Amino acid sequence: MIRFYFHPTPNPAKVALLLEETGLPYELVPVDTSKGEQHAPSFRAINPNGKVPAIIDTEGPGGREVRLFDSTAILIHLAEKTGQFLGSPEDRPELLSWLLFLASGLGPFSGQAVHFQYAAPEGLDYAVNRYRREAERHYQVLNDHLAGRTYIVGDGYTIADISAWGWLDRASRVLKGSDDPLAPFPHLKRLFETVDARPAVARARQVGKEHSFKRVNDEETRRALFPSNYPPAA
């Protein structure tokens, strides 16, 4: 059984989608990051970085527990565990390249674009422009790569497409003010729509719906989500 530590944000959404695609049994463990539950010692023992997603995968007859954190590591582990969504052996180098491009580029720059457009104080125009333009540049790299291709790697659907879907699903927040944010990137838009039409996506969107996560953006939330912005307690 897999214990899946979850909050309804893009990186956990990727793992939710892969779990629903593979049919692996899992137990959902809500982590309300707006309340600071990711900083609890019990969770830090699972992910020292204090971020979701994370999983505990109990493997084998002896019940050995394997902890994993970071969405890309989890995607690779679960895909290898099931033998699904990895492409062909010949695709492996390119699969890893695109996964790391998404993990180190599209994801972080999208997240920072959202932060500086919605959460940062006004007057940081340079930062807003920097992160939004870099998010758009990463979109363009993927868009150009997808010209004439259905999926990111090889001839089939892989965890690279699942990883991209997690943040592309939030494109309207990344590219604030756009009614059709993927319109300038038609190949990327086609990929998103192809993935988004899969039955497992509808199931993934329901993950965690029964839990009441905090939605209020107050001082507690800001301190929980951006602790480095605040001096340590004396």
UniProtKB/TrEMBL annotation:
<feature type="domain" description="GST N-terminal">
    <location>
        <begin position="1"/>
        <end position="86"/>
    </location>
</feature>
<feature type="domain" description="GST C-terminal">
    <location>
        <begin position="88"/>
        <end position="216"/>
    </location>
</feature>
<dbReference type="InterPro" id="IPR036282">
    <property type="entry name" value="Glutathione-S-Trfase_C_sf"/>
</dbReference>
<dbReference type="Pfam" id="PF13410">
    <property type="entry name" value="GST_C_2"/>
</dbReference>
<dbReference type="Pfam" id="PF02798">
    <property type="entry name" value="GST_N"/>
</dbReference>
<dbReference type="InterPro" id="IPR010987">
    <property type="entry name" value="Glutathione-S-Trfase_C-like"/>
</dbReference>
<dbReference type="InterPro" id="IPR004045">
    <property type="entry name" value="Glutathione_S-Trfase_N"/>
</dbReference>
<protein>
    <submittedName>
        <fullName>Glutathione S-transferase family protein</fullName>
    </submittedName>
</protein>
<dbReference type="InterPro" id="IPR040079">
    <property type="entry name" value="Glutathione_S-Trfase"/>
</dbReference>
<dbReference type="InterPro" id="IPR036249">
    <property type="entry name" value="Thioredoxin-like_sf"/>
</dbReference>
